[in-house]
Design a protein that fits this description.
It is a single chain. Helices cover about 75% and strands about 0% of the residues. The protein is built from five helices and no strands. The relative contact order is 0.19. The chain has one domain. Helix 2 packs antiparallel against helix 3. It is an all-alpha fold.
Length: about 130
C-alpha cells in the first residue's frame, strides 16, 4: 500500500514542480529549478524534524510526502540538464554559479527547515 501513497505523492509533487517551472523568468539562468530545489530542501528538512522524527503521522504517509511528493517536486536531473545546457551555450560562470548556489542554498535551507521543525511551538513563539 505504501507504493500507492508514494505514487499519489509523486503525482502531486510533479504537478507542483511543473507549475513552479512555468513561472516566467526572462534570463538564461534556470532560476525556477533552483527555487524548486531550495524550497524542497527547506520543506524536507522541516518535515523530517517536525513531523517524521516526532512520529506525528503514519510512516506510509511520511513516505508518500517525503519520497513521493517532495522527491518528485525537487529534481537533480533537471539541475544537471540545465547545467549541461548552460555549459553548451558557453555560460561557464552561470553554470558554476548555478551548481554551487543550488548546493549551498539547498544545504542552508534544509538546515533552516530542520531547525524550524525542531522548535517547540507555544503561544509565546507565535
Amino acid at each position: 500500500m505504501s507504493y500507492f501513497y508514494v505514487g499519489i505523492g509523486g503525482v502531486i509533487g510533479s504537478i507542483l514542480r511543473y507549475l513552479v517551472g512555468q513561472l516566467p523568468f526572462p534570463y538564461e539562468f534556470p532560476l525556477q529549478t533552483m527555487v524548486i530545489n531550495i524550497i524542497g530542501s527547506f520543506v524536507l528538512g522541516w518535515f523530517t524534524s517536525a513531523i517524521i522524527k516526532k512520529q506525528r503521522i503514519k510512516s506510509a504517509y511520511a513516505t508518500a510526502i517525503g519520497t513521493g511528493m517532495i522527491g518528485s517536486f525537487t529534481t537533480l536531473s533537471t539541475l544537471s540538464m540545465d547545467t549541461v545546457q548552460l555549459l553548451a551555450a558557453g555560460n561557464y560562470l552561470l553554470a558554476s554559479g548555478y551548481v554551487v548556489g543550488s548546493a549551498v542554498f539547498g544545504f542552508i535551507f534544509a538546515l533552516m527547515g530542520l531547525k524550524l521543525g525542531e522548535r517547540k511551538w507555544s503561544r509565546s513563539n507565535a
